[in-house]
User: What shape does this take?
Amino acid sequence: MFVEKYKPKTINEVIGNKVAISKLVEFAKAYKNGILQRPLLIYGPNGVGKTCSVEALANTFDFDLIELNASDYRDSERLKKRIETAMTTMNLFGKITLSLFDEIDELSEKFDSGAEKVIISIIQKAKQPVIFIADDFWNRKITFIRNYVEKVEFKKPYDNEIKSLLLNILRNEGKFISEDIINAIIKRSNGDVRGAINDLEIVMDQEPDMLDSIISK
Assistant: This one.
């Protein structure tokens, strides 16, 4: 799938959100220099590059990456075993381990009530970088970590930034799509880069006489 094929490999390949990206880079550089930082809480709409930016950051700075999501918060003991040791010690090769808590705002009553306590304990003991990701900074489900984090807002990229990405994909694929179709994809995406890439991949497989329906949506 194009969303995987064209996922940014390094932090410099992430489109848009230059201010947020600079904060991530400063965060990583501090750890490279042995300076502990407060965890980051990245928040913003779906599809704007929050998770892939953290993955690209880890690649750029040669960090080991541990990714957790909503399913990992269902069992506080499993969560503790998986993450606590990694956060308090260097790995066998002396590399920095970055822990990414994705979908942290998915914590709810259906998840293990002990997960919040484990996460706070990890934050307080961590000697390695920790990043959280949420859609909404003010979601009541993440009230428990707000006082422990530095917030980093991700916003929707500009249309011209998304257009440049789509054109680059087309060039790499050796395909041509009219500018009207490209603009229609961008308009429909409403800043969702992932959605725009998915739509582009779908459009590239369509017959020309089927593309009018995309423009009209």
